[in-house]
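User: Please predict the structure of the protein below. I'd like the answer in structure-token form so I can feed it into my own downstream comparison script.

Assistant: Understood. Taking the following sequence of 349 residues as input:
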Amino acid sequence: MFLDLTSQDEKSIKFKVPNDVAKIMKQWGGKSVKLAAARGALPMSGPNLVTVLFIFYYGEDKELRATALKTLKGLPSGILRSVCGQADIHPEILDLLARLHFKNMDAMEPLLTNRMVGLKTQLFVAEHASGDVLDLLANNDVLTRQVKTLRTLIINNPHADKVMKIRLGWQEEVAPVATPAVDVAPLSTENDSVDDDESSSAPEEEIEDFDVSTLSKYQLLLDMPVAEKIKMGLTGDKEWRNLLIRESNKLVSSAVLKNPRISEGEVLMVAKSRATSEELIRIILLNREWVKNYDVKKALILHPRTPLQNAMRFMTFLTDKDIRELAKSRNVSQAIVNNARRIMMNKKY
């Protein structure tokens, strides 16, 4: 079953309706049943529901369209994750979900790594996203090297930090240092002129040296071989660690966590970032000192790449307030939610 739909930019979408969805829709007679489907009130799997909502959204019926849009906006993270991770999903469905949920990392992580995602979707995310979602896209080295427009949109995104922009080739414009005007007395002595030269040139040299050293640190990273990056990750200062922890190469980013100078605050930021790889989470879990920190434990529980058994174990250390928040959270797996509710019930009795 094929449908001819019209996208937001007035382009025709040739959409093949999956057989199971076509069978479901054939059973619907009147408008009231279709409205119930648009509200998500009929029994359907997540992928089938999103497909139906997509069809209604791009259909001609305005009421169905508005109802479907409201339901699409309110989809829980669990459904979004399963739908956006489908291998055979239509690119236009991914595009619609990206425009509605580009701030939701649970949806955007499987969406941006899906082989079916289109370039126009990636460009939209590059222009509008922030935080971990923007990090995830910017760290796709293959894509950012190939698509100049994508790099430009990320660099111009007001949410992109300085480190991210420099990794993509941006160079900070250094404002020229104004040379102060010096009034030269017509009868000045030779010694006076020497003192003036030294006093006017010294500050300018200090500013120039600072700018050159700062910029070269970022620029060196762009062409630095992997072996040098690993060495710098193991020994570098906080600025180097902040740069290298974002590297897609696991050997490089892992080296940062093995740097003896890394602080618990930096480790906490890594644990909080949903773009953090499974390997980095594993390294954090192996460090007993780090996981003694309450905030690190909490961040690991919330992180989607923390093994479930570890997350469950850490939950026994949480305060009642944090347990209550987990019990109603949409940003963690259902197993975590159920365990939080179980802990609450046990404490009542």
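That's the full token string. Confidence is low (pLDDT under 50) at residues 182-216.
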